[in-house]
Amino acid sequence: MLPILFFLYHAVVIIALSIVIITRRNPVHSVLWMLVLFFHIAGLYLFLNAEFLAAVQVILYAGAILVLFLFVIMMLNIKHELNADLSIGEWPIGVAIGLSVMTLTVLGIGKFVPGPMGQASIEAVKAETHTKAIGRVLYMDYLFPFELASIILLIAIVGAIVLAKKEKASDR
Amino acid sequence: MVPLSWYIGLSAIVFTIGMIGFIIRRNIIIMLMSIELMLNAVNISLVAFSHYLQDFRGQIFVIFIITVAAAEAAIGLAILVALFKNKSAVHTDEIMEMKG
Prior knowledge:
The complex is a heterodimer.
Chain A: H1 2-23, H2 27-47, H3 51-75, H4 78-83, H5 91-108, H6 122-128, H7 130-140, H8 143-164
Helix pairs in contact in A: 1-2, 2-3
Chain B: H1 4-24, H2 28-52, H3 57-87
């Protein structure tokens, strides 16, 4: 009973906050509600025995990405934003497309057939601790994708600097 | 025990809300946040699969998705900063240089 209540609380809060996020007029409010949303998603990860990912969720999403969003929002004119139109004129079409995709996906859930079970049973992970187990898989079986991820991050650093830096007058 | 299908349903609903937000909003910052919402919805389903099928591959995938999401947010916001410097517009319907 208690696990179901725990899940339902998180599910209701996550869905409600998602709707709140996409309907706020002020982007700062959206970012702050998103912070609460990420904490609830981290709670769901803890419930799924993924405590390393819960920590990563809080540190990386709530700590790094949302701060990035807040920094950029500081540059835009909030006063102008508060008086502008919230959505594009054709928003009912967008909502209809979204709801039809949701109907299709939710109807398809019943057809799901799970594949074969893997090695990482709850007892095995508990004996080894989760972070160590995930690190073993990441560094032994997925070492090459891991190195590629570092290249993606390098490209992001260089790209962000090139895009956002001020152009010198002599460069033109 | 919460059934796996509840997690997939939650993930589908949150993904759709993010999609609707991306389609209907004019503000590019909210659109980028909708993308983050969609990525998080996918992460929920991957972690749920990983737990219920007792396999770590789903969680490894979530780590890579978080990496790509961080890179995407940095690049997207840098593009937004450049756009705001050149056009001082953050609304999608005010930017139409490439419209034929």
